[in-house]
Amino acid sequence: MTKKIMVKGMTCGHCVRHVEEALKSIEGVKSVKVDLEGNSATVELAHEVKDEKIKEAIEDAGYVATDIQ
Question: What pTM was estimated for this model as a whole?
Answer without folding.
Answer: 0.93
